[in-house]
Amino acid sequence: RALVCLSIMMKSTNQQCNSFQSVVGIFLHSANTLETVREFLLSLGISISMTTINQAVSSLLTKADENMKTLGMTIQALFAYDNLDIDLKQSVPTIENNDDTMVHLTTGTMLPLHPTTMPEHLNCSQELWEK
Known about the structure:
Blueprint: H1 2-13, H2 19-30, H3 35-44, H4 50-72, E1 77-87, E2 102-112, H5 125-130
């Protein structure tokens, strides 16, 4: 409670002092909170505005995209792919719908390797094929 009260008081004296409100706003966005709840928390001084939240999310996405591109250009990334099959059955069949309700997707994940990983550590494919 003390942190929330102190944060609200600091924001009321200086509009640039809104770290706590920014974290709350980003969390509300990630939790898909209703707009009315976000506006209510904004009026209480606990969150930042929806415009600022959207700008922060856009900025974070841009930075994450840059970091992923930079990491992907190095040998310090691990790429994992997986096939995903989803059966989207219709609750009410119609004549227009065909019988193929399967959707086939491929998901990909890029994971950073430990910073001390060297290229020679990755030369293990021959050993794997032998097993």
